[in-house]
C-alpha cells in the first residue's frame, strides 16, 4: 500500500523587538551574549512582579496576521500554560489559548508540482523559555541561560495541509521569506530565531481520513525538520505494514542518530491547566490601530514577483530569485532606475549569476546587516551597460566587477586604469590574430587540413594575447577568414 504523509506545522518565530514580551530587558543575541546578562525579576518569575505587554510585539504580530490574511480577533486573552521544566522560571508560560490574536489565513506555496494555498489555523503570541545546555563532565551538569526567557514569540499554526516533504520545504521557506519582508524576524536559523514543531501522520494515498498523529518537538533547522518528517513517515509506514498501530505521542528529534525518540505520551490541553492570566487584561485591538498597521505593510513577495515580471519583463524564475530577499529586490530596482535605457533582463542576469557568484566567492552578502550594499546600484548598472553596449567584453566585465567589490571603485576608473576597453574590429585585433597564427604554425596547419576543433584553441590564444579585451566570436570570425585566405604570414 502506498501511504501519503499529512503534516501540520507550528512555526515559532522570535519577534525583532528591542525588549522582551513582558519586561524591559533587552532582547539579546543568545548565541553571543554572556549567559543571564539580560534578565530581571519579571522574566525570572520573582514573586510579586507584574508583566506589562510589549506594544511593539503586538504591532509586529499584527503585521504577520494581516499579511497572511488572518481574521484578527478584536479581543484576545493571554493565558497561563502551567508545566514544570528547568528552563521555565515561573513554572508557567504566558501564551494565548482559547482566544488567539488571529485565526484563519493562508500562505501560497510553489513546488515543482505547481502553486497552491496552505490553510492556517491560528496566529498567537507567547513568551519564549530559557535555554538549557547539558554539559558532560564529572559530575555531569545542566546549565541554564534565561536571556531568552520572556522573548516575544509568534506561533503560526497551519492546518494539516502539507502532503509531502517538498510542500513542507516550500511552506517553511515562503514563511521565512515573508517574516523577513515584514521585518519581524531576521530569518537567522543558526541563531534559533525560527523553530518548528511538526504534527505528522500518514494515510493510504487518496484517502480523506487522517491517521493517528505524532508531534515532533524542537526542530531547529530546515534540515532537521525534513529529516525528522522523512524518518517518521517511514517508521509509521513500517508499523502499519506490519499490522501495528501508530501511537499518539510527543517525540524528540536526535540529530546525531537521525531518529525520533519518544518523550512522553501525548499531553492533553487539560494537563497544562490553562487559565486566563490574572495579571493581564484582555488584549483589545482597535480598528484604527489595525488600519494603521495594514496601511504600513510593505509590498509582499508574491505581489512583488508579479510586478517585477510585468514592469521589467523578467522571467518567473529570475523574478523568484530576486524577490527571495527584499534587499536584493530593492537593489535590482534601484539599478534598473539608474539606467532606464538598459534592458532590465540584462541587469537581472548579471545580478543572479555574476554578481551573486562573485559575492559568494568573496563570502560577502549583497547588502549587509546595516543595509549597506556591497556596491552602489548605479555603478553596477554602469558596468552592465558597458558590457551590453560593447565597451568592454563579458570576461573584462567580470574582472571589473570583482575589483569593484574588492576596492569599492567605479567601473570607469578601473576600465581606464587597466586598459580594458574592448578591441573592436580593427587593425589591432587583426594584428594579434596574425601574430598568434605565426607563432602557432603547427596548429594553424591542422585547421587548414580540416581539423576544425583546433580553431577554438587558437581563439583561446588570441583571447589570452588580448587580455580578454576581444570579443571571442569576432576573434573566431577573423581567425577563420585569415586561415582560409591562404596567407600564412
Ligand atoms: Zn526581564
Ligands in the model, by name, code or SMILES, are:
zinc ion
Question: Structurally, how many domains make up the residues?
Answer: 3
Q: Can you count the beta strands?
A: 17
Class derived from helix and strand content = alpha+beta
Coarse shape: elongated
| Poorly predicted ranges | none
Spatial gap, N to C terminus = 76 Å
What do these coordinates show?
The chain is an alpha+beta fold and 489 residues long. It folds into three domains: 3-292, no CATH class; 301-417, no CATH class; 427-484, Arc Repressor Mutant, subunit A (Orthogonal Bundle), CATH 1.10.10.410. It is built from 15 helices and 17 strands. The protein has helices spanning 55-67, 165-181, 222-241, 287-295, 301-312, 316-323, 326-338, 344-362, 377-388, 394-407, 411-417, 427-439, 441-448, 454-465, 472-484; strands at residues 3-14, 71-72, 75-76, 78-82, 92-96, 102-103, 106-111, 114-127, 131-135, 141-145, 152-158, 194-204, 214-219, 249-254, 259-265, 275-276, 283-284. Strands 1, 2, 6, 7, 8, 11, 12, 13, 14 and 15 form a ten-stranded mixed β-sheet that branches. Strand 13, helix 3 (222-241) and strand 14 (249-254) form a beta-alpha-beta unit. Helix 8 crosses helix 10 (394-407) and helix 12 crosses helix 15. The radius of gyration is 30 Å and the shape is elongated. The N and C termini lie far apart (76 Å).
